[in-house]
Amino acid sequence: MSDTLKGIAASDGVAVAKAYMLVQPDLSFNKKSVTDTDSELKRLDDALTQSVSELQVIRNKAAENLGEEEAQVFDAHMMVLSDPELIGQIKENIKTKAVNAESALKEVTDSFIVIFEGMEDNPYMQERAADIKDVTKRVLAHLLGVTLPNPAMINEQVIVVAHDLTPSDTAQLDGKFVQAFVTDVGGRTSHSAIMARSLEIPAIVGTREITQKVTAGQMLAVDGAAGVVIIEPTEDEISSFKEKKSVFVAQKIELEKLKNTETLTQDGVHFELAANIGTPKDLDGVINNGAEAIGLYRTEFLYMDSPDFPTEEAQFKAYKAVLEGMEGKPVVVRTMDIGGDKKLPYLTLPEEMNPFLGYRALRISLSDLGEGMFRTQLRALLRASVFGHLRIMFPMVATVGEFKNAKAIFDEEKAKLVAEKIDVADDIQLGIMIEIPAAAVLADKFAKHVDFFSIGTNDLIQYTMAADRMNEEVSYLYQPYNPSILRLIKHVIDSAHAEGKWAGMCGEMAGDQMAVPILVGLGLDEFSMSATSVLKTRSLMSRLDTKKMAELANKAVNDCDTLEEVVALVNEYVK
To answer: Could you tell me the pTM of the whole model?
Structure first.
């Protein structure tokens, strides 16, 4: 009998396929004394052989999908498995202490990890500790006879089931095979949900218990728009879902007719519809969905997908590819936004009580720890600028001083390149992401210094409402249409226009069909969203009259007390 679970609709689409459990297995074991040490040595050798074979497959897949440089991390893992000192000590432990292979492995690798982690003056050796941890987990899984999941190894049509998906997990998902994913936790603006929309994969998050309810190989039916997943659907339910999928595909084909049309409202006013991307590979989605610009290039994935700090040359190639691919259309590149939930194994950040309000993004870039990294990124961007229409945006700006400091570093690096006779563009706009309420409130002052604003509503809303958007207990406070949020947005847009600057939005609210009519009425210049939302938004805008929407926005900002009143108002104006 089928079982239905409800979650948060994170990415539209319908899928029916087997479950692939992206859940870490239990790797606990008991230390045992053994008499047959030869048997334990053979178990260890078999586990090492299996691990090397597995890593070779993963490495080849990574080289194919992510590039040779990214694949080199797996070379390091294979080197660990062939290290005679490490493996020799594990075997010696089995023989002299007469213990099972699991405990000998763990004892020796733990001691190596402690030594390497303690080498604070040698970052290279500290990184080896992470390699040993990863490799130990893989060998242990083989010794215990359990499967270690790896999204890059999926080679058949599946629906991924996980407690949560990290950005790097999501980046490895292959749309040819992964039909959808469902998680226990998360919200519509979590990174996994944003990536799902970017990859055009249906997704449901925040089901709370999908990993407890489902086992590997069970059939699932997912409706990403309704936020519904059916476990072991009946034949009738499967037929119904397949029919829904046909309707969804037909709607997509109808929307594709708008791909090469201009974004105009009913009364002929143009708005710029842009797309958000994470890597150069996302360009296809941008072009196929008819976006007029890239309003947010999240460069942190360059860092997260690399085994070490990406070089100036590697970054230059990535930025150049995107700028050339957009053929002169604007590209807004956000400088590195690391911190919060986006960690780098090769960058040691201090432990923090609340990393989302801590040492992250531009705060790292302007510090002694991150300034070199920041300068490298700016040099790569400046060099790439001649290949397209580049705009640079700084994230997590709270004060005018921070922007001035970042701009000063930009100006210094530009002057150095000019002195080196390296071509750079003269028309690069510098802007900030408005995601901290302090910056939104002071937008009239910031507007005198910046070239543009891009409103990052994902963080702006949670910071304004003092509610973690990933916390299910307070998720009801994540309210894009709350009049307080609308007032901040209006102030930012009005402040930009007063200084002759433009204001965009790159948070998920930009593609929210309930919010778009209000944003049109507020005069937002640029809307940047997941590429898959572009055509749907273009279709909606073609039915809107800007004068009526201005009236709607005015009432929403000034007359409404609650988000429910705002929603009712939008429904009244947009039949």
So the answer is: 0.72
